[in-house]
Amino acid sequence: MKVMLLLMLSILSFQASAQDMYVCKDGSAERTVEVVYSQPGNKVPCDVKYTKASGSQVLWSANHEVGYCESKAQAFIAKLDTLGLACSKVNNAVATQPLSE
């Protein structure tokens, strides 16, 4: 059991973790907004990643200001809501892409 836990932790240490993830839907269209932390357990550095059918992009980043990515993500979610997308939070997601992406 300890070996399995250590293996899982070492695998996760090479991945970015998304603490705040939102899925927004409008009919069949789906978009995601994620706050991605480069160093699990630390709130900075961070990125706000936006994904839709045409691809992904980083909208905002912060290296030192704790709370910046979270507030930008919240404001963007509010904007998507006004555009007619229904957004809901997904709890404690872990990104599947390595940091090098």
UniProtKB/TrEMBL annotation:
It comes from the Bacteria. Keywords: Signal. Residues 1-18 form the signal peptide. This is DUF4124 domain-containing protein. It comes from Photobacterium carnosum.
